Every structure is written in C-alpha cells, then in structure tokens.
Amino acid sequence: MSQDSDTRTRAEERAERAERMAKEGAEAMAEHHAQAKAMDERTVRLRALRLAKEAADAEAKAAAPPPAPKKRKRS
C-alpha cells in the first residue's frame, strides 16, 4: 500500500506542477500581450505627433517668403 500511495502522491505532485506551470505560462503570455499592446499604442501616438509636426513644419516653410537672391559683386 505504501508504494501505491507514493505513486499516487508523485502523480498528484506532477499534476499540480503541470497545472501551476500552465497558469504561470498563461499569466506570462497575458503580460507579454499587454506590453506589446502598450508599445503599439505608444508607437501610434508618437507617429501621429511626428506627422503633425512635419505637416506644421511644411506649412510654415510654405508660408515663409522665399529668401532674397544674393547680388553678385562686379569687379
């Protein structure tokens, strides 16, 4: 009987370990997905800011008068 209970105890321990590993794996994947989503959101925000700045710079450059041509010095 002792050998059967030892076998059963080891099997239960393996099952508990497998269950714990699966739970930890699921938590790690959830954390990874959350970090990836946060990075994607930051990327979208930063891209929008960059595009807005580039558009504002282009508009300011178009609105600015062209520089006066330099006169040549005759000798």
How is this fold's topology laid out?
Elements: H1 2-63
Region (Disordered): 1-41, 53-75
Instruction: Work out the helicity level.
Output: over 70%
Biggest sheet statistics: none
Q: Give the strand content.
A: under 5%
Shape: rod-shaped
Number of strands: 0
Mean pLDDT: 91
The SSE order reads H
- Cα-to-Cα separation, first versus last residue: 117 Å
Q: Using only CA atoms, what is the Rg?
A: 33 Å
- Counted by DSSP, the helix tally is 1
Return residue spans where pLDDT drops below 50 for at least 5 consecutive residues.
none
- Number of domains in the coordinates? 1
Structural class: mainly alpha
Describe the 3D structure.
The chain has 75 residues and is an all-alpha fold. The protein has one domain. It has one helix at residues 2-63. The protein starts with a helix and ends in a 12-residue tail after the last helix. The model has no long low-confidence stretch (mean pLDDT 91). Residues 1-41, 53-75 are annotated as: Disordered.
Short recap of the structure:
This protein has 75 residues and is mainly α. Helices cover 83% and strands 0% of the residues.
Features:
about 80 residues, about 0% strand
